What we know:
By secondary structure, this protein is mostly helical. About 80% of the residues lie in helices and about 0% in strands.
Amino acid sequence: MERSPLQRQVAYMRRSLFDQGYLDEQFVQLEDLQDDANPNFVEEIVTLFYTDSARLIHNIEQALQNRPLDFNRLDDYMHQFKGSSSSIGAKKVKSECTQFREHCSARNAEGCIRSFQQVKQEHTILRSKLETYFQLVTQAGQAN
């Protein structure tokens, strides 16, 4: 069966998310769990991730305001964030979380602050890319 131009665009965008290092194999595993009974499973899981991560970002921002910094609390929050990121296959976000945690271990306040900006940046970029991707998936499904 011939793919529509929209389906080819979805496939290309999906491939580019992996090629550019935004997603890893865990995302594929989520896709494998999606079926006709729950056709929006992956999008729903990603939406839950963004809801949960917004709470964690807020908690980390609040913790970074406190002096002295509580590196153990910051590390706990980032550990949760990294786990959530890993669960959806957010490769670049997860990598930045690891950097942040290394700065926590070194008790490097400036490193934590700089690294947190990178975490938020990668989080925002991935969110935008996935929103566009899921919109295309929906449009391609409606075109069939």
